[in-house]
Amino acid sequence: MNLRIDEHPILGKTKRGEKVNIVVDGEVIEAYSGEPVAVALLAAGKKTLRKTGKTNEPRGIFCAIGLCTDCVMTVNGANNIRTCITPVEGKMIIQSQVGSGRWKGDRSDADEQ
Ligand code: FES
After folding, report:
1. Would you say 42 and 29 are in contact if contact means Cβ atoms under 8 Å apart?
2. Which of 33, 69, 94, 113 has the fewest CB atoms within 10 Å distance of its CB?
3. For atom 3 of ligand 1, which residue has the closest CA?
4. Is residue 35 assigned to a domain?
């Protein structure tokens, strides 16, 4: 099922960038260069982009304009990237994030032992 809008009644035909592959939680997904990462994931059927740190509740696209931070993910090793306003580039490595994500020196693994 294609969830992307190919032709809008007012805006006309959608212009897309080249087809590229991105890796999301280890899975290769086809996307279009320049479209928002969150849009590519939604088109691939992925609605949950992160989970909250305290209660582990799922979050996904909410505002879609870069204000709410519900869509933050780890992109190419950088945490807290708002995927609704981050354009797809080929070979991106994207990971679902829990809470504030992990970073160099993160001690969350040590706390779990
Ligand atoms: S959905 Fe709100 S910042 Fe991305």
Report:
1. no
2. 113
3. 66
4. yes
